[in-house]
Amino acid sequence: MAEEKGTLQAMRGWVVDHKLRAVGTLWLTGIAGSIAYNWSRPGMKTSVKLIHARMA
Question: Could you tell me which residue ranges the HIG1 domain spans (predicted)?
Fold first, then answer.
């Protein structure tokens, strides 16, 4: 349990030190997830899929 708290504190410290990188990573993950979701939906043109992914 103590080791887990140490790891959590280390991760929190990294996020505090690298705020912009952390936000950018979360944003990029969200965009990638949105594109992956829209790509799995059949019957839409590629351009429409990209527009929908960008808006989400």
Answer: 1-56
What is the rounded CA–CA span in Å between residue 20 and residue 39?
28
Q: What is the domain range of residue 32?
A: 25-56
**pLDDT (tens place) for every residue of the chain, 56 residues total:** 666 778 889 989 988 999 999 999 999 998 888 888 888 878 888 888 878 777 76
Helix, strand, or coil (residue 1): coil
Supply the angle between the helices 2-17 and 19-39 in degrees, to the nearest 10. 100
Distances (CA, A) of 12 to 6, 18, 22: 10, 10, 11
